[in-house]
Structure formats: C-alpha cells, structure tokens
Amino acid sequence: MNNRYINWFGIFRLGLVQTSLGAVVVLTTSTVNRIMVVELALPALLPGLLVGLHYAIQITRPRMGYGSDAGGRRTPWIIGGMFVLALGGFLAAYSTSLIPGNAALGIAVAVVGFVLVGLGVGAAGTSLLVLLAKSVAPRFRGAAASSVWVMMLLGFIVTAVVAGKQLDPFSFERLIMVTGGVSVIAFIVTCLAVLGVESSVKLAVENVESANVLKNKKEAEADVAKAGFRASMQAVWSEPDSRRFSAFVFVSMLAYSAQDLILEPFAGSVFGMTPGESTQLAGTHHGGVLSGMLLVALLTSVIGGKYFGSLRRWTITGCLASAVAILALAVGGQIGQAFPLQATVFSLGLANGVFAVAAIGSMMDLVGRGAKQREGVRMGMWGAAQAIAFGLGGIAATSAIDISRALLDNIPLSYSLVFGVQAVLFIWAARLAFGVYQPATAEETGHFSPGCIVLGDN
C-alpha cells in the first residue's frame, strides 16, 4: 500500500470512532425510547418525535462539513462532535428521571438532549467519513467502509448486551450512571482513536506532493474560508455528480429505512410470530446485512478488478437484489405460513448490506471529486440527505400501513402494498446509481495507483 495512506490498524482505529458513536446512539434511540413508553407510560409518539428530531437536526451536516473544510482539519470536529453527542446522550437519559416529577421540564431536557445527539452525530460522523476517505487507498475503500460499519454495529450489540445487564434491577439512577459511563468511555476512546492519524496522513501526503500542489491546497482552503458557507454549498450543488448522488442517497435510504419499523409488526401480524420470534427475525436480517458488507469487502479488496472492484456495480446489484427480496416478502404475505420467511429476510439483509456498504465506499471515493477543499460540504450534503430519508422513511411506512389497513381492512394486503412501493424505490435507486458516476482520470481523483477503483466503468 502507498505510504501516503493508513494501514489496516489505522482503519481499525478510525472504526473505533464509529463504535463509540453507535454505543451512545443505541442507548439514546433504543433504551431511552423504551423507558419513556414502558416505565413512564408516555405516548409512543413522544420518543418517535424525539428520534425524528435527532435526524432532522442533521440537516446542519453541510455547515459542519464547511467548517472542517475552512479549517483544513477534521480531528477537532470529530472530537468536538463526540463530546456534544456524549453530553446529549447523558441529558436524554437524565430527562427520564425528571419526567415523573415535572413532565414539562423533563421533556424540555429530552428535546435538548436529542438535539445535541443529532448535532454530535452530524459533526463527528461527517468529518470521520471525510478523514477516512482521504486516508484510505482507493482499492480498499469498500473494505474500509465495511469494517467501520461492522464496528458500528458491534458498538450497538456490545452496548446493548453489557449496558442491558447493568441496568437490572432498573432505576433511573442506574440509567443515568450507565449512560454517563458509556458516554465518558466513548469520548475517551474517540480521542485516543484519532490521536495523530490526521497529522501523519497529512505529513505523508506533503512528502510526496510538490511545493506548488501544497501551495495550491493552502490557497484553496483560504478561498473556501473567504467565500463563506453559502458560496461553498452553491459550488458543490452545481456539480452534477454531487446532485445526482444526493438524489441516490435520499431515495435508497428512504427505501432502506422504510422497512425498519414494519418488518417485525409484519412478522407478528401476518405470520403470528411472538415478540421473541420477531426479534430473532430482526437478528436474521442484521446477520444478512453483516454478511453482505463482508462479502463486498472481501471481493473488492482481495479480488478487485474491473467487475469485482467496481463499487458502482455492487451498489446497483444490491439495490436490485433488495427490490427482488422485498417483492418476495410482498408475495409471501399473501401466501402465509408456507412461505420461507427466515430465508427471505436473510436474503433481504444480504442485499441491503451489499448496496449500503458499496454506496458508502462510493461516497468515500466520490467526495474528493469536484470543487477542491470542499469535501466536508459534499459529505455533509449527502449525510443530510441520508438523515432526512431515515426520518421520513419510518414515518411514511408506518403511516401507509395504518391508512391502507383502515381503507382495505386487509392486513396482509396492506403490508404487501407498502413493500411493493419500497421495491419501486429500490429500483429507482438502482437507476439513479447507474447514472451517477462519470469516468474519472487519475488527475481528477488524485489517485495514480493501477489498482484504483473507477466508479464510472461499465
């Protein structure tokens, strides 16, 4: 590997930041959610709106990306974002102890907490992806994307298991202590994980680039800071690839997120699964997602080449396979108990994992194209599109189920119709992915390795 890029240990270190992000987020969006609904007997709409708020606030991602572009450094934004995220997670947990005595105050603190969670995820997540994109050799970006997302999922799993044990027997004091402990650990791990990474990569790049190139980069950073956020955003939005990729991210993530809140209810309502069985079914889906991610990582980094190394091909394949799998679920709802639900859900997860990690790898490759020194704005725009799609996807899917059930009085048919719309979205996303990329020269991408992944190949 070229010495201007980090090695696998460096990728693992940056992946620990994703693990830390996942650890705090899972306690906020899952555990605090459950406490509000079950222990506090609040309407499920309240935590639903709070989770939606943490997605909505991430529309600020482009502005945060601009800040890291203008300053020329990502590490302060990662550390600062993790601090804000940790504080938000703690406040969200603390708010639950206030609600029994003063509901208005507790809810107000919860709103502040979830806003901080959204801001923290946006700041740290956006800058982390830019740093990863600039630090990893082109050929290994698919594998790197797989690795850091697997580590984020591990953060979900490990935190859920370990923190879950520490929360019993439940009390609000225990919740605050456990959440505070996880938040502090996540912040410390993040600081240690990013320590020296950016400076070492920058030094390696400076050693292989000419004085004129370095001078142009510094001038570009100064120009970005002088131009301001609005001009930087307009410059990025004027790029056809950036606009098209934003559309692809929004449509694909809308389709992907739509299934999150309806898969388990579908299994219970149509196939008669118990809560435990439907939870295991969700685990089957997550297992498929991990398998798909690892498959893309293996084939792109080990085999590579024109076909197996093309992230665009994997993105399109994953979207189309997701459409086929979700259509199979739509048909399965009409068949009933004889339908192979477990295998189909695993296939859906596999396809989801393939497209998701290929899209993330593509995002890392594409972020360096277009207007120079605006990688943060570009990544922020795509992150905002993803967050908005995630927020809308769950609301749209659950609302569609409720409306179609009321109109049709046929539960299996209601789910089949919603799954059908989701399949159309996946097909639309595949079409958008096909038209997103144009072939890039080595000069445009800044990559001169013969193993470079060219997203525009056919």
Labels describing this entry:
2 domains; Growth Hormone, Chain: A; disordered C terminus; single chain; 458 residues; 19 helices
Give an overview in words:
- It is a single chain.
- By secondary structure, the chain is mainly alpha-helical.
- It folds into 2 domains: 1-208, Up-down Bundle (Growth Hormone, Chain: A); 236-458, Up-down Bundle (Growth Hormone, Chain: A), CATH 1.20.1250.
- The protein is 82% helix and 0% strand.
- The protein contains 19 helices and no strands.
- It has helices at residues 8-39, 45-56, 61-71, 75-98, 103-135, 141-166, 172-194, 197-208, 211-227, 229-237, 240-258, 263-271, 275-303, 305-308, 311-335, 341-366, 375-408, 411-436, 442-445.
- Helix 1 packs parallel to helix 6, helix 1 runs antiparallel to helix 7 (172-194) and helix 13 (275-303) crosses helix 16.
- The protein is globular and about 60 Å long.
- The relative contact order is 0.14.
